[in-house]
Specification:
378 residues, seven-stranded mixed sheet, three-stranded antiparallel sheet, 11 helices, 38% helix, Aminotrans_V_PyrdxlP_BS, iron-sulfur cluster binding, cysteine desulfurase, iron
């Protein structure tokens, strides 16, 4: 099987598996327990993994919170901040996001709307990027949070998070970004980019499923940013998230971040070369094809392309035993893509659009084999 659906999930790295195995066998201690070696080993391993995640984005260790994944992180941050600032601090109730966010952000915003919050959904351009002027024009005295995706999960297009978050910082408005698709794939430095919160998952960077986290920036005076917890019942994760740590998954996540930091530059070069070949070959086979991803401001290896006259579901079924590609987000299967609608595609164009997303485990031979199969089923 040629796996070209790495925006959905990734193959777990053998180094990651190896790092996790002791914690599925002899190292089964609870890191919240005290005074004996098993617990101390577990605690030390959790904190070492926290360091690995922090180093990948250049944050402080105590700004990394482990969760079950990005969907939980998005829910936690949006619900927790809105609750704390509106109900506890009696501030505004206005949140800004975009029409092309991941569903875990959009559905959370809809949930908040039902509870009286005002939500502004920004438009995007033909590549899926938010316009800075539209954001600026949407900010009000009641705005408490802006949440904009860093790299779109269907298009691969990057938002200009540095300038967008700077605008919010200048107005003392908190800024969150879903960084699930960009973690470990582009350089992230939270010391130079003024985001207040980030969300991410391990399984997008060759780590295990069921683990992820969020970055929560410390305040100017070094104290915790107060957020209403999503899960109560314990003091784990700096009182942000109760529950026994999944040590083996946390260790796997830490190892995946360590590898991503070590290999990022090399992987970027390889993926850019492979995607250039893919795009050139697709254009040669389908001269009327349309690349929907931004060609420069994008996640390496992610290509969203419309193939006029080629039904995407029929194509995927024909390839299903040999090649894995996608019509878009794994969280929106069976529905016309709201992301593609938002960038102006018609319904007929949406149903002829595919997403190809590569990883470091893909090769030129696989790209050539995929192209040959496209030619054979024309």
């Amino acid at each position: 099987m040629i796996y070209f659906d790495n925006s959905a999930t990734t193959e777990i790295d053998p180094e990651v598996v190896e790092s996790m195995l002791p914690f599925l066998n002899e190292e089964y201690g609870n890191p919240s327990s005290k005074y004996y070696t098993l617990a101390e080993t577990a605690k030390k391993s959790v904190e070492e993994s926290r360091t690995s995640v922090a180093e990948l984005i250049n944050s402080r260790n105590d700004e990394i919170i482990f969760t079950s994944g990005a969907s939980e992180s998005n829910n936690f941050i949006l619900k927790g901040i809105s609750d704390y600032l509106y109900y506890e601090k009696k501030l505004g109730n206005h949140i800004i996001t975009s029409k092309t966010e991941h569903k875990s952000v959009l559905e959370t915003c809809k949930w908040l709307e039902k509870r009286g919050y005002k939500i502004t959904y920004l438009n995007v351009n033909k590549y899926g990027q938010v316009d800075k002027d539209e954001l600026e024009g949407s900010l009000t005295k009641e705005t408490i949070l802006v949440s904009l995706i860093w790299g779109n999960n269907e298009l691969g297009t990057l938002n200009e998070i540095s300038s967008l978050s700077s605008m919010c910082k200048d107005r003392s408005i908190l800024f969150h970004s879903d960084a699930t698709q960009v973690l470990g794939k582009i350089d992230i430095d939270v010391k130079s980019i003024p985001v207040d919160f980030l969300s991410f998952s391990a399984h997008k960077i060759h780590g295990p499923k069921g683990i992820g986290g969020c970055f929560i920036r410390k305040t100017k005076i070094g104290t915790k940013q107060k957020i209403t917890p999503l899960i109560h019942g314990g003091s784990q994760e700096f009182d942000y998230r109760a529950g026994t740590h999944s040590v083996h998954n946390i260790v796997g996540f830490g190892k995946a971040c360590e590898i991503a930091k070590r290999e990022m530059n090399k992987n970027t070069l390889v993926l850019k070369d492979l995607e250039t070949i893919l795009i050139d070959q697709i254009r040669a086979i389908y001269p009327s094809s349309q690349i929907n991803s931004h060609l420069t401001h994008k996640i390496p290896g992610v290509i969203n392309v419309t193939l006029p006259g080629i039904n995407n579901e029929i194509l995927i079924r024909k390839l299903r035993n040999d090649v894995a590609i996608s019509t878009g987000s794994a969280c929106s299967l069976g529905e016309p893509s709201y992301v593609l609608k938002s960038i102006g595609l018609t319904e007929s164009e949406i149903y002829t659009t595919i997403r190809i997303s590569l990883s470091k485990f893909n090769t030129l031979n696989q790209v050539n084999s995929f192209i040959n199969q496209l030619i054979s089923i024309q």
